[in-house]
């Protein structure tokens, strides 16, 4: 009888222990579900870029299909320019200016002849009404007047064409900014790189290349902090995401590590810098950055 009671007591104790364990396990699971893992911050490489990007200004194509030679270059690297400022002059200007002078002389001559011809026709019409001259003479004079008027219109059109061509003999700044780089000098014919690069670096931005696997964690208005990988400036820059490219492309900002995947696919993200930070690095176009996007 005593043995039976002992067995019952042991069984009751084991059941109680199992019941306690089973009720405590869901509580622990629920507690862990309430503490999700914090999202990881996105880090990516980028570079400083003028707002509106960098403009590469090319030379006009001459009549024989090549670039004209530079005769005057009025800016140096680092010069600030305003929209419309004259930057360079090409050797096609002199011959076109000479042609324009010839056309202007022709226009002046035709206008003088038209004045005389118009006056003569008025006199011939009076004589024709009086029967002093045959009507065929008046017709000849009027035909000559029409020919002179046609020649004048052709000369005026030729002058307009020359004026348009003359505008292509000089290079003017399309935007206000800073001359970042000169590709050609006086006496040279600009190649594929053009004459110079102009950037609106008074409004600096950052161009960040985010891996395609991380782009789903980047959003418009997201805060970004940036540091210089090689000590190009002190401290940090702050900004926010203003544009996310809709296109996935190959990376352009290469990593320092030579073993890095140069064929990695990225999405370009534009970050607007805080005004004070933008002013601080306005002379650092192209400087490499390490960007961290706030989760």
What general form does the structure show? elongated
Largest sheet: 6 strands, antiparallel, barrel
Percentage of residues in strands: 25-35%
Question: What class do helices, strands and sheet pairing give?
Answer: alpha+beta
Percent in helix: 25-40%
What is the spatial order of strands in the main beta sheet? 1-9-12-11-10-13
Which stretches of 5+ consecutive residues score pLDDT under 50? Answer: 1-12, 18-32
Number of strands: 13
SS element count, helices:
4
Please give the alpha-carbon distance between the first and last residues: 70 Å
Rg, nearest Å: 40 Å
Order of helices and strands: HEEEEEHHEEEEEEEHE
Mean pLDDT: 82
Summarize the structure.
The protein is 37% helix and 27% strand. The chain is of the alpha+beta class and 295 residues long. The protein is elongated.
